[in-house]
Write a structure and sequence with these properties.
InterPro entries: TIF_eIF4e-like (IPR023398), TIF_eIF_4E (IPR001040)
CATH class: Alpha Beta
Family: Belongs to the eukaryotic initiation factor 4E family.
Shape: globular
Number of helices: 5
Number of domains: 1
Keywords: Initiation factor, Protein biosynthesis, RNA-binding, Translation regulation
Largest sheet: 8 strands, antiparallel
Distance between the termini: 46 Å
GO cellular component, one term: eukaryotic translation initiation factor 4F complex
Strand order of the largest sheet: 2-1-3-5-6-4-7-8
Mean pLDDT: 84
Strand content: 25-35%
Protein name: Eukaryotic translation initiation factor 4E type 1B-like protein
Number of strands: 8
CATH topology: RNA Cap, Translation Initiation Factor Eif4e
Radius of gyration: 17 Å
Amino acid sequence: METSKQLLKKDWVLYHYRPNTTRKTFSSLNDAYRQFWESFHFIAKFSSVENFLALDGQQKRVSNLTHGNDCYVFKHDIPIDWTHPRNIEGGRWIFKYDTTISGSQLDNIFYQSVLCLVSEDCWNEREKICGIAIHIRNKMNKICVWTSDHKNPDEIIKIGKVFKEKIGYTETATYEVHREAQRELRPQPAYSI
């Protein structure tokens, strides 16, 4: 007997960002921008919890990614672009992890983040959430929760608190506004929890 799937309210897409490692001199900013976008690779689209759980285990193991790689899970109709109209007024919660945590811990944190993201019934602010990203770096790994609007502190802080609790984060998480991050290398956090 086949059980019915737990359909999600939105379709979600899993992407892998693998930077082009060949150093190039670009003749224009458009060339650099094009190479950046060519480094994004579609992995899978899922519309149910079961579809996500059925993804190959390798695709859910972010600990296998090398430094400089990213993994994104975004609503299917929202591009991963700060300057896009769906994101320009938004920002992101940043949860930083030391690179000394084990691979299985990092995989579990990402897995719990995705489950929190797609189990939309736990909050009213779900429309404000665009997606999540994990950035694998030499000194510090980051999980980021992107939102579409930074102007309502109560909503933004609630989103941050829900994710912080669900992933068991014990440090201070910070929220940065996309527009500020575009202007400054290290913008001041708009919110902290």
